[in-house]
Amino acid sequence: MNHLSLSASKHLLKPQPSKTQSSVVLLLLNHQFSTDSDPNPNPKPSKQPHEDDSLVTLVVQLLESDEKDWNLDQLRHLLFSDSDAAPSPRSLFRITRRLNTSSKALKFFDYVSENVATSPDSAAATASLSSSFQAVLELTKREPNSRTRLFDMYKMAKERNIPVNMGAAVLLVRSLGFAGMVDEAVNVFNGLDPALKNTHLRNVVIDVLLKWGRVDDALKVLDKMFDPNAEFRVDSVTGDIVLSSLLKREQRGRRVSDEDIVGLVQKFGEHGVFPDSLKLTKLITSLCRNRNTNRAWDVLQYVINSGGAVETACCNALLTGLGRVNDFKRMNVLMVKMKEMDILPDVVTIGIVINFLCKSRRVDEALELFERMSGGGEKTDGISAEPDEIMYNTLIDGLCKVGRQEEGLRLMEKMRLQDGCAPNTVTYNSLIDGFNKVGDIERGRELYDQMKEEGIPPSVVTLNTLVDGLCKHGRLNSALEFLNEMQRDGIKGNATTYTMLITSFCNVNNIGMAMELFEQMLSSGCSTDAKVYYCLISGLSQARRMDDANIVVSKLKEAGFSLDVIAFNVLINGFCKTKKLEKVHEMIQEMETAGVKPDSITYNTLISYLCSAGELTTAHRVLSKMINEGLVPTVFTFGSLIHAYCLKGDTYKAMKIFRDMGSKWSAPPNTVVYNILIDSLCKNNEVDVALSLMDSMKNKGVRPNTLTFNAMFKGLKENNLLEKAFKLMDQMIEQACNPDYITMEILTEWLSAVGETEKLRRFVQGYEVAASTA
């Protein structure tokens, strides 16, 4: 049966009343007689509330029967017999809504539509129909699968020119929007009389649009509400809806930037609407997290200066952001502003300030604030709170980081006396780390034993702190023993633990133990990261155990990690040193496949290897590719080429590259490059050129070392250039460049042979004088 048809229900209505209907008629007749007996000929006043309630009850009782048993005559007597006192819109709304089903309510609405059409008061008739239609929608909304039926009813109302009132409009927009029928909800809104599009309804539309990611459409509706000439403007509910949605970390549709949200806050502020504490805190936190602390500062200042409410939480969020960038000046300004506005700092506020003072190593200022807060010194107004464990731990950690471990211990004892506070794992971890950093490993171990005696459970951080201290002081076996002890107590090592141990054993060339630890880590099911693999690959490559390095690379890939450019460079260097050129090519190809771009170290490693292998043509090709990739050659790059040419005795090409370094590439030569050239030039009997390079070193501020002078002394000896050797000997003393056994061997043999032992004696004596003066 088509519920939208009026005529379809007429033949179902019987003229004879049932027993229930008879009682209703009797009530109706009694009511009617009393009305007729009223001698007052004047128009009757509108029904009183109790009369309205009676009418609703009578009609609902009449309509309780099945739809086909309705008696239209009785219904007409109740509702429309008195043309001067037609049922109010409120009565019709209540009657319709109390009918059990939407189908029955719709039939009643059809009946009302037919009877009010002849009403002389068209405004009252329209209001009655709108109210009854709203009730039909409410009943429909409660029933299953109502989405499309709601919109069909709206279209029916449009076809019949039945105006949708405010209640029905809100219901339609919200229900359709909730069901995801956003376009339909927008159509309802757009089709309404402008007078109905008040702030409340616009808020509902904006809420629906934002919920489904239609951000730009929502902002268009909002812009009209921001118009100073608009009839319906934004209110606090608008602000809550908009800012709540846009400040969500995960939202549908276009992401609105922090800057745009700040602009919206300012626009709302122009209408006297400000974000509440929660939303303002979220916005400030987001701005600070995105390193836009200046904008966060501006937002809070704007809200304060515009008269918006600001609470401690908002200030705490900004203090945190300012602390991260070490902006203590503005932190102080904000604290003063809080005092002026009677915004009381809480324990979180003080904790934030103390935390960042400690991180910036301004521990004395942090301690002063702590004393003022806890009543240990002269209090400042507005700063009064009970310190908690976090604050104590922050201060203890700060003291330990600046080497004041004993003060940290005393503060821990004070912590024990504070109600509700007691040292915990974090407290002991900070103290153990502090003593480790100053090399007092035994004191750290004593603290570990103390925390166990007190029943404070150690954590993996405790383990890593002690292992790190032991490893850094070369006590690797003790570190291993401690790891085993902790594991027996149920504390397993993590990736950080094994990375420290593996790196330390690789550094002392104990690759066997490093590999054993690596296998132990894998077999224990420890969650690993790429760093531990990189450390082992580096250690194996340095030890030239490239087969084992390959095995670790395979395990790295099995674990779901991939090589980065640093790891590739380590492997390429290892394969170059072991002269496995085919593996070098394999690594280069794998880099290209993986999309890892070679860097300067990659190219320098290849160029160095090719130069040492005498493949200078290929080395120059690699250099050209390096330049084409936009990488600038370094002194190491040119040094490899210069060394290769010097080994070949081609000092001409070596000097050409040397000159290009400073003029063409802005890579000034260092002492090593000068030494290579000076040594080669002296060996080729080009002593004058070598001496000119010594002058160049002086002019360019490059300090010669013992190797430089040794190379020159050899060249000068071969050419018996004594006077120039004497000048260099004086220069060596002036520059406090200590001779080694090679220097003394060259000069002793040469000067003794030519009878200049006195010069040699003064040369040695010059160093003795210089040493005593120093």
TrEMBL record:
A single GO molecular function term of this UniProt record: mRNA binding
Classification lineage: Eukaryota, Viridiplantae, Streptophyta, Embryophyta, Tracheophyta
Segments for region (Disordered): 33-52
Domain of life: Eukaryota
Protein's name according to its UniProt entry: Pentacotripeptide-repeat region of PRORP domain-containing protein
Keywords associated with the record: Repeat
NCBIfam families given in the database record: PPR
Gene3D superfamilies given in the database record: Tetratricopeptide repeat domain
Family: Belongs to the PPR family. P subfamily.
Positions of PPR repeats: 346-380, 388-423, 424-458, 459-493, 494-528, 529-563, 564-598, 599-633, 634-668, 670-704, 705-739
